[in-house]
Amino acid sequence: MISPAEDAWTKEEAAHLLNRAGFGATIKEVETLHAMGRRQAVEYLLTERPDPNAETWPKWANEQMLAEKSRERFEAIRQFRQTSRNLSEQELDRKRREAIQKFQQEERRNGLEAQVWWLKSMLTSPNPLKEKMTLFWHDHFATSFQKVKEPTFLMLQHRLFREHALGNFKSLTHAVARDAAMTLYLDTQNSRKGKPNENFARELMELFTLGQGHYTEEDIRQSARAFTGYNLDRRTGKVSQQKNQWDDGDKTFLGKTGRFDGDGIIDVIFGQEQASRYLSMKLWEYFAYENPPDTAVVALGKTLAAAKFEIKPLLREIFLSKEFYAPECMANQIKSPVQFLVQSLKQLETPMVPPAYALYVQSQLGQILFAPPNVAGWDWGKAWINTNTLFTRYQISGSLTKGGKNPSADQGMGKAKGFAGGGGMGGMQSALEFSWQGPDFEAIVPRAMRDDLPLLVDALIERFFHRKLPDKVRESFMAYAAEKKGVVFTNQEIAELVHLMMSTPHYQLC
Question: For position 404, what pLDDT does the model report?
Fold first, then answer.
């Protein structure tokens, strides 16, 4: 059962909602949402508003530019063949490697631009829940640049996730089955009549819709036959089904028999009760906590099924439930690396960090956008934290709070794996870009507040934790502030106090 929460709520609960349904918030944003009341606040998050970030969408990330790039590469290949006829084998090999390197550099630049664009959108979007759900779909229907290689395909898929972020799960699944990035990632384009490839058929059920134990190996084989004949036009990113390569014979799948194609298979899957339960469980774990009780999963599954797989009614029920605001849920979720970075910047009220440093943070903490480790996506929860990543989080907190060049960060740049997932940052001069002024502590902590240490510490606790901390933790902050304070509590000393707060285990939770 899922019980509704009372209408009255606290600022701590409002902050909790913004942390889970978005990427954290400033003091002002928490106060604004709290003033709305619980129900209106949830409706506010579920309602999409015009987003200025859409106007800054990368210029190369569309079908028209994909076609233009294809023509340019075709012409470059044609000219290369013409001019290389009289070259020695050694010279020919050198020019070939130069051409490939040029293409790869362009892909890496575009990939990094895509990452930073999305991080900026997470930081500034007026639709935080849409951003959080887009990240969920990116993890749920995981694909990676390491295999897809073409950034435009991944951004077209990203656009698909954004369009369906708060839409219909079934419609999105149909669209993903004909998505260019997914087609390449799970080899659907290599599946032909008589030689079906089972990759997509297997993951469609195991990871995307039903979960293990709710289908058989025979169901996978029959489903794979239905997804034969899919063809990807790399010039346009369009996926179509060639009827002469499609296995049009009868297939018995999940107890149903028919001449199913891929869409028919998906329709059969969504006729299973387990489809609504599976996604409901995943969304509850994403927004609330792991291992929900079976009664909750059943109740949420019924909500999703009744809504014909529209996502909003399910999210509304989750965010208005008593269980979502229970002690075992609040401040009990380990921040993912992306959550950690974006939420930190929000609370420090700072702009996006330089691109190379954004890549460094993702790489060192284990969550590179557009590069999940495998088709199952990232491991969440406790998997985000180990001795190395925890120490790195503390170092990153120092960089974010104190500004300027951070030696540990600069030294680590060479080890950061890029969007392509290979090697280091290479010749990117931006690897040493991390030189900025840092947060405006004059605005965050007015001078009048600095003479009253209890007031100062409590204000910073509210900003960075939005909840009451154990007395011993607060006392440690007070002692540190008293030690640091001189005649004037300088911005540097404020930065060190904030760094201390962000380097506690409590800050790693939201």
Answer: 55
What is the distance between the alpha carbons of residues 31 and 294, in angstroms, rounded to a whole number? 35
Place of tokens 């299973």: 272
DSSP 381: G
Q: What is the DSSP letter of 336?
A: P
Q: Across the chain, how many H-helices and E-strands are there?
A: 24, 4
In degrees and rounded to multiples of 5, residue 240 shows phi and psi of -130, 165
Query: Can you name the residues that pair with 331 across neighbouring β-strands?
Result: none
Q: 8: which residues sit within 8 A by CB, 6+ positions away?
A: 38
> Rounded to whole angstroms, how far apart are CA atoms 20 and 334?
11
Report residue 24 as tokens. 């954290």
- CA 422 vs. chain centroid, Å, equals 20
DSSP sequence for 70-86: HHHHHHHHHHHHHHTTT
Query: What's the confidence (pLDDT) of residue 417?
Result: 46
Partners of 321 in beta bridges: 4
CA distance 230 to 178: 8
% of the chain at pLDDT higher than 70: 94
Query: Which long-range contacts link 30-33 to residues 24+ away (Cβ below 8 Å)?
Result: 30/466
C-alpha span between 140 and 282 (Å, rounded):
9
Confidence at residue 262, expressed as pLDDT on a 0 to 100 scale? 98
Residues 6+ apart with CB under 8 A from 93: none
Q: How far apart are CA 488 and CA 447, in angstroms?
A: 9
Q: What is the pLDDT of residue 410?
A: 37
Mean pLDDT over residues 225-245, rounded? 96
Cα separation of 332 and 127, whole Å? 24
Count of residues making up the chain: 510
Angle at 124 between CA 41 and CA 458, to 5 degrees: 65
Residue 466 and residue 453 in contact, taking contact as beta carbons nearer than 8 Å: no
Residue 242 backbone class (left: φ over 0; alpha: ψ -120 to 50; beta: rest): beta
Q: How far is CA 344 from the centre of its chain?
A: 16
SS3 332: coil
* Residue whose token pair is 């406790």: 382
As a whole number of angstroms, the distance between CA 458 and CA 478 comes to: 9
Alpha helices, DSSP H, located in 256-310: 262-269, 273-287, 294-306
- What are the angstrom distances between the C-alpha of 47 and each of 167, 284, 410? 12, 20, 41
Question: How far is residue 438's CA from residue 456's CA, in Å, rounded to a whole number?
Answer: 19
Inter-CA distances, 45 with 22, 133, 304, 359, Å: 9, 12, 19, 29
- Tens of pLDDT, residue by residue over 190-225, are 999 999 999 999 999 999 999 999 999 999 999 999
The pair of three-digit structure tokens given for residue 77, joined into one six-digit string: 């290949």
Residue with tokens 């199952």: 376
User: What mean pLDDT do residues 47-64 have?
Assistant: 95
Which residue is it, tokens 């009341």? Answer: 37
